[in-house]
Specification:
Immunoglobulin-like; 183 residues; five-stranded antiparallel β-sheet; 26% helix
Length: 183
């Protein structure tokens, strides 16, 4: 074989290998980032239209309950809720706190049935920053229906932090609020 044919074959193999490496990089790095950005945009749009209503925190011993509703008259889908207690000193920075460990709570629909529990692997804020990176249990509820949340681990002076989340693959916190014992 002539020497220039061998060099052209080596060059062709190198170009094809480099092309495959670029495609593999695109699929493994860029495509997931594109999907995350797309889902983040959907969550941002939904967050701008959603109102979270939460009633006062009613407590008995170390158990507490509250009623909440994620309201958006244009939506008929579901959202996911997470509720966890925090000391009332966190009221001013409630958007920054995250649950420490697995919160112990249950969510009941308006018909009295237990809402569907889900395990979330990751939760992002609306800027794509990771809030929770390890599995956590939450509940799926319908938009526009009040639900009752009962949780334990409540101490006198605690507030209940409520997160409302949305996502099909990646899950985003689209709203948050808190409530406390009425004064």
């Amino acid at each position: 074989m002539p020497e220039n044919v061998v060099q052209e074959i080596i060059l062709l193999v190198a170009v094809v290998t480099l092309g495959l490496a670029v495609i593999a990089l695109s699929i493994t790095v860029l495509y997931p980032q594109f999907i995350l950005s797309s889902e983040e945009q959907v969550a941002n749009n939904l967050a701008s239209q959603t109102t979270i209503s939460v009633g006062p925190l009613l407590n008995k011993g170390n158990q507490a309950s509250l009623v909440l509703e994620a309201y958006d008259p244009a939506e008929t889908s579901n959202v996911t809720v997470l509720v966890f207690p925090e000391p009332s000193s966190f009221e001013t920075s409630v958007g920054l706190v995250t649950p420490q460990g697995q919160p112990s709570f249950s969510v009941y629909l308006a018909n009295g049935k237990l809402a569907e529990p889900v395990t979330l692997a990751k939760v992002y804020d609306l800027n794509g920053h990771l809030l929770i990176g390890s599995p956590i249990r939450a509940y799926t509820i319908p938009f526009n229906d009040p639900v009752t949340v009962i949780f334990s681990g409540f101490s006198k002076g605690d507030i209940a932090v409520v997160w409302v989340m949305y996502g099909q693959g990646d899950v985003f916190r689209i709203g948050y609020t808190f409530t406390g014992v009425p004064g």
